[in-house]
């Protein structure tokens, strides 16, 4: 499984909104500049994030985007599944490790793929957008599980 640039930009945009949460709505230009995301690409991503219930948009002079729910309640896994479809590592097995067809169900490798899919889902489900924003506020990249930043 490879996470698309689009999905990564969506995560970056959500982190930026979390960082500016107290300021109210944030414009596309502010997000694009802060996270180095092409404006037109970001516009399409924010539209999808709105449709997915991750962000809200405001019109008018003070318009822009803000998180639709608290950053702690938006998990990285949820955003990735929204953009990528599932967290499957191989064809024929879903992100929860369940076989999608008869061939996969009979595969001697199924238990390995299932365990790997569950591990990926579990790890990505540990992190919220707030975790990334908090790490960013602490001053940048860290090394070691649980202490990194986008």
In short:
With 150 residues, this protein is mainly α. It has seven helices and two strands. Mean pLDDT is 85; it is low at 142-150.
Walkthrough of the structure:
- There is one protein chain.
- This protein has 150 residues and is mainly α.
- It has a domain at 1-85 and 128-140: Orthogonal Bundle (Arc Repressor Mutant, subunit A), CATH 1.10.10.
- Helices cover 51% and strands 5% of the residues.
- It contains seven helices and two strands; from the N terminus they run αααββαααα.
- It has helices at residues 5-19, 28-35, 39-51, 76-84, 102-106, 110-126, 129-137; strands spanning 55-58, 64-67.
- A hairpin with a 5-residue loop joins strand 1 and strand 2 (64-67).
Essential attributes:
150 residues, mainly alpha, Arc Repressor Mutant, subunit A, two-stranded antiparallel sheet, 2 strands, elongated
Task: Describe how the helices and strands are arranged.
Layout: H1 5-19, H2 28-35, H3 39-51, E1 55-58, E2 64-67, H4 76-84, H5 102-106, H6 110-126, H7 129-137
Antiparallel strand pairs: 1-2
Helix pairs in contact: 1-2, 1-3, 1-4, 1-7, 2-3
The largest sheet is: 2 strands, antiparallel
CATH architecture call of the domain at 1-85 and 128-140: Orthogonal Bundle
User: What structural class results from the helix and strand content?
Assistant: mainly alpha
- Rounded to the nearest angstrom, the distance between the terminal CA atoms is 19 Å
CATH superfamily of the domain at 1-85 and 128-140: Winged helix-like DNA-binding domain superfamily/Winged helix DNA-binding domain
- Summed up, the helix count is 7
**Portion of residues within helices:** 40-55%
Computed Rg: 17 Å
CATH class of the domain at 1-85 and 128-140: Mainly Alpha
Q: Ranges with pLDDT <50 over ≥5 residues? A: 142-150
What is the N-to-C order of secondary-structure elements (H for helix, E for strand)? HHHEEHHHH
Main β-sheet, spatial strand arrangement: 1-2
Average pLDDT over all residues = 85
Portion of residues in beta strands equals 5-15%
Approximate shape = elongated
Q: Count all strands and give the number.
A: 2
> CATH topology of the domain at 1-85 and 128-140, which one?
Arc Repressor Mutant, subunit A
